[in-house]
Write a structure and sequence with these properties.
Elements lengths: L3 E3 L12 E4 L5 H15 L1 E6 L14 H14 E2 L5 E7 L2 E9 L6 E2 L4 E4 L2 E4 L2 H11 L1 H4 L15 H13 L10 H7 L3 E2 L2 E2 L1 H7 L6 E7 L7 E8 L2 H15 L2 E6 L2 E6 L3 H13 L9 E5 L3 E7 L8 H5 L10 H9 L9 H11 L4 E5 L3 E7 L14 H4 L3 H12 L5 H8 L3 H13 L3 E4 L6 E4 L2
Parallel strand pairs: 1-5, 2-3, 12-16
Antiparallel strand pairs: 3-6, 4-7, 5-6, 8-9, 10-11, 12-13, 14-15, 16-17, 17-19, 18-19, 20-21
Amino acid sequence: MIYVKINSMKTYLKESETIELKKSTSELKEAVISIASILNKHKKGDVYFGMKDNGEVIGQDVTQNTIREVSRSIAEHIEPKIYPKVAKIETNKKSCLQVEFEGNNIPYFVYGRAYIRVGDENRQLSAKELESMFIKKNKDELRWDNKYSDKPISKVNSKVLREYIKRANLAKRIDYKFKDVTTTLKKLDLIKDRKLLKAGEVLFCNENPLEVQLAIFSGTDKGNFLDIKLLKGNLFDLLEQSELYVKEHINWRVEFKDFKRVEIPEIPIDALREALVNSLCHRDYWRGEGNQIAIFKDRVDIFNPGKFPEGLSPQDFIKGEEQSVLRNPLIAINLYLSKDIEKWGSGLKRIYDECKENNVKVEFKVLKSGFSTVFYRSKNAPENAPENAPENLLKQDSSELKIYLAIKRNTKITISKLSETLKLDERTIKRNIQKLKQKELLKRIGPDKGGWWEIKK
């Protein structure tokens, strides 16, 4: 029995990215190619037999055998299988055949090849486009952060995990306390089948594949560097050390507000931290190279490996028109719980708005090798006095200057943390701190634990 669909449509259809018109089933092979092509682009569409490509209805002889032939040809030649609705319709008092189809299991192949709809034409997909489709289709399977780590749970830094839970408690995004490493990681979905996941490895293990390369260059290109170092460790430590490094090597100016001295950086610190978090969270961990922070005379460039979401641009997120696309959802969710990430999809907009408010130029670069956030530095900033350090320090041993700048940026920093951050032994740290005290540039307030440093003006 022939299924008949009555359609009183008086206007002509037009070919488009989701509609294909054929004069008769003599063009069945081309029609089947169009079906696969439309599926790969829009996941659903329609093919009509009995219409010219300009929309003129000429009619098609439709029998039970016609419907069976069309259905069989689609079933035999399109992979994966689809189950379209094939029906006889009446349009402008003439019989036509309509094929309604849909499917989400892309890419679809037809006669051994894959096509995609471009306008009203079918274009064969390139190998690169096919690879991209497969990656998108299998994104959960190909995700890095939910794979098993080769590190045992015992390698998790319990101190870092405990401090993380405290921050998440203060942010009111986690309502339970730290009990033990295994229990806590389970609650954070970082353990599966009693094994640590790679997201947990990066977040809470000191030994992991994550690394950040930092460098200071004397000019506006990479011709001559003044300092270079490589950081390794858990994500939170790298975030803290990277932020401190940039703070120490950008310029600051002083203003007086309400009779109080206020130090203002040439790059907004909230925007800087947001860029650093984004670079560590959204990077492609399958890639072997590390994140990079390059400080030039005229700019600070924060780079992470990994392509920007396909089909989108930074402007889409700055306008707030797109939802967040998470390459590493497990890492992102845990950074959100500790409030290191404020809100989904708002990172680029927050950076842009913060820089605009502070009259700082920022640029987001989508590169073939990855993504860069570039902050442009003040043209009139002093070049020979990092962070307005006292003149009697500029000509001294660099260790003394580095310690002074590190303490100035974080007055609660401990000697052990100074040692870890600056890669100096604790004896050297203590010796230089004593020199700073003798120069009346530094004073200790309170006990070793719970106290802080006072920078003398």
